[in-house]
Design goal:
The protein is of the alpha/beta class. The chain folds into two domains: 290 residues, Alpha/Beta hydrolase fold, catalytic domain (Rossmann fold); 79 residues, no CATH class. Helix content is 46%, strand content 12%. It has 16 helices and nine strands. Strands 1-9-8-7-6-4-5-3-2 form a nine-stranded mixed β-sheet, sandwiched between helices. Helix 7 links the parallel strand 6 and strand 7. It is globular, with a radius of gyration of 28 Å.
């Protein structure tokens, strides 16, 4: 018995010793797994937020001219480091998402008057007019004619913020409301805004020129609006009369080339395409009575079921948008509505701004403005490292400032142009006229290389 008990006791001691030797290793293993999980999460956060990316001044492409030197000296923000909010501002996706959802941090409410302009085809264009809140530093009467992004209007937060800033700098502002974009304004004809139709913008500009015969114009376009204003100015030389300069921000220049990139999952571009298509469907369906009613001859062959099931802008453009102007194919629609075929005709000072991390504009499209700036003396192309699509938020660590880098750049560039026009001697005005004539001679040669 004694030996049996000793054996059992020995076995128990053995098990106890085993327990004491294994137990300390288990928590250590779990701690290691936790550390690995935390490290993985931190790595993903750093990669997604692009925290290791440096900040830098915009990459500028321009020709070495007296005008370009004056502009860069008078608008120093173009040569200074753009610093987005530290924790999230280096992510193009977050910059774009915050612009899309919040618009701006603290959106003012500028007071404006809504104007209604009847068009020849029965449509009614509308725009909002905002008078300046101070004297312009040039002492001149200057009006900013502004074209917002896709499906946007004067009530959008980013437009209101920019208008308020411009008013305080002495600029009158006229903001086009894209046809069909305002939820409380009914269409008066079976047509709404398209990617490159300039009719409504031209009507607004004509009204401003007629109502204020002494005013000079600063032309501003955001995203799709950038395509429209550049196409408008390049369509006819008379459209550039009394125009001091043009600024285009975050446009894609060629819809035909962009459509291929919008079907790719790179940078989640296919997902953004789906979201924009869903928004376009809502706008179109809100006007279904006018667009697809009995009197709509252009929409007789439009299949509403295809609209409901559309998952991309290209499907909507092919089934609906191109038919407003009678284009026979999607390719024809994109070819004729893109500013890439007209932008080389612009001879007034032109500032083209894009962001390198814009998830909507593929980097391959940026060869268009870069090539243009290399060929034409009136063009400056500014490419920022960060900013997303119409984001360009500035700030220290977490909270962005009310005014964005984009707001400051546009107004700063406009101020510099106004100063240039006021200070330049008459001989330079004559020289610039001759230069414009030479540019027009070379336009036909330039067109092929830009396309």
């Amino acid at each position: 018995m004694g030996s049996f008990e000793e054996s059992i006791h020995a076995n128990m001691n053995t098990h106890e010793s085993e327990v004491y030797t294994v137990a300390p290793e288990m928590p250590a293993m779990f701690d290691g797994m936790k550390l690995a999980a935390v490290a993985t999460v931190l790595y993903v956060i750093v990669r997604c937020l692009n925290l290791k990316s440096p900040t830098a001044p915009p990459d500028l492409t321009y020709q070495d001219t007296t005008l370009s030197h004056f502009l860069l000296k008078s608008c120093p923000i173009l040569t200074k480091e753009y610093i987005p909010p530290l924790l999230w501002g280096k992510s193009g996706h977050l910059q774009t998402a915050l612009y899309g959802k919040l618009g701006r941090v603290s959106s003012p409410h500028p007071f404006g008057l809504r104007k209604y302009l009847p068009m020849q085809d029965g449509a009614t264009a509308t725009f909002d007019l905002f008078e300046p809140l101070a004297d312009n530093q040039s002492g001149e009467d200057v009006t900013m004619v502004i074209c917002p992004g896709i499906g946007n209007h004067s009530e959008k937060h980013y437009i209101r913020t920019f208008v308020d800033h411009s008013q305080k700098q002495g600029y009158r502002c006229a903001v086009l409301n894209h046809l069909g974009a305002l939820p409380n304004i009914e269409l008066t004809s079976p047509r709404m805004f398209t990617y490159g139709c300039t009719w409504e913008f031209a009507a607004m500009v004509g009204f401003i020129k007629k109502t204020y015969p002494q005013t000079k114009l600063i032309v501003v376009g955001f995203s799709l609006g950038g395509n429209i204003v550049c196409k408008f100015l390049g369509e006819n030389r008379t459209n550039q009369e009394r125009v001091l300069c043009c600024v285009s921000v975050c446009q894609g220049y060629s819809a035909l080339r962009a459509q291929e990139t919008f079907l790719q999952w790179d940078q989640c571009r296919r997902f953004y395409n789906f979201l924009m298509a869903d928004n376009m469907k809502k706008i179109i369906l809100s006007h279904r009575g006018v667009l697809f009613g009995v009197g709509s001859t252009k929409m007789v062959d439009a299949d509403l079921s295809r609209l409901y099931t559309a998952t991309s802008l290209m499907q909507i453009d092919d089934n609906i948008m191109r038919k407003f102007h009678g284009h026979n194919s999607l390719k024809e629609y994109y070819e004729k509505e893109s500013c890439v075929h007209y932008i080389h005709n612009i001879n007034v000072p032109l500032l083209l701004v894009n962001s390198g991390d814009d998830p909507l504009v593929h980097n391959s499209l940026l060869t268009i403005p870069r090539t243009l700036a290399e060929k034409k003396e009136n063009v400056v192309f500014a490419l920022t490292l960060h900013g997303g699509h119409l984001g360009f938020f500035e700030g220290a660590v977490l909270f962005p400032q009310p005014l964005t880098w984009m707001d400051k750049v546009i107004v700063g560039y406009a101020n510099a142009i106004c100063q240039w026009e006021k200070q330049k001697p008459p001989c330079q005005s004559q020289g610039s006229t001759m230069l414009n004539l030479e540019m027009r001679k070379g336009n036909k040669r330039e067109r092929g290389s830009l396309e």
